[in-house]
Write a structure and sequence with these properties.
Strand content: 35-45%
Radius of gyration: 21 Å
Number of strands: 10
Helix content: 10-25%
Structural class: mainly beta
Order of helices and strands: HHEEEEEEEEEE
Oligomer: single chain
Strand order of the largest sheet: 1-2-9-4-7
Number of helices: 2
Length: 196
């Protein structure tokens, strides 16, 4: 009968996943991302927001953190700049650039987050959902604070940490945000916007 031919399928060696190249990405951002990656490998996800906020704090205010192109704002609304997207899609790092008077809507998040003020100051207002008694929910303000350079905070995913950030600083502000999902395609998809 006919002979059999043995075939061997050789798999290509696994290539390490590489982060998406971002023009102007500073070495300090890569160092921050490496520290967050190490945390993501060892901590359960519910512990990440507070731990990431702690790791973010010493990077805030560093002169070499952002390339000048990532400090450019917009006249219309605050502007997001993607600084790092984890190749395993576990987190993204963004800079938000604010002009005086710009603010977010009242919102929660689709993933955990950690935020720190890099430059200028921001007003933060926290809200809670309350039952109005007629089957509707409303947002009620429960806390107000002013965040200055070096201040950090963190949020859980969902509607448990509803808030609004606003820039009242005449010089504008820059904040650094780390979110627990890939935002390289649509950074705005992190927000769950609520009427207020």
């Amino acid at each position: 009968g006919p002979g059999t031919m043995a075939t061997s399928i050789r798999s290509a060696p696994a290539q390490p996943l590489r982060a998406m190249p971002i023009p102007g990405q500073q070495p300090a951002i890569r160092r921050l991302a490496e520290r967050i990656e190490r945390l993501a490998e060892v901590l359960p996800e519910p512990e990440l927001p507070a731990a990431v906020a702690e790791i973010l704090q010493p990077f805030l205010g560093q002169a070499d953190l952002l390339d000048p192109r990532h400090t450019v704002g917009s006249a219309d609304t605050y502007r997001r700049h993607l600084l790092y997207a984890d190749p395993l899609r576990r987190f993204s790092v963004l800079a938000l650039v604010w002009a005086q008077g710009q603010q977010t809507p009242v919102h929660g998040h689709t993933a955990w987050g950690a935020v720190g003020v890099h430059q200028g100051w921001l007003e933060a207002r926290n809200f809670e959902l309350i039952d109005t008694g007629n089957g509707l929910l409303a947002c009620s303000e429960r806390l107000y604070c002013e965040a200055v350079p070096g201040d950090t905070s963190w949020v859980k995913p969902g509607l448990g940490d509803i808030h609004r950030l606003a820039c009242k600083d005449r010089e504008g502000a820059i904040s650094i945000h780390v979110y627990g999902r890939d935002l390289s395609e649509d950074p705005g998809s992190i927000n769950i916007t609520l009427p207020h």
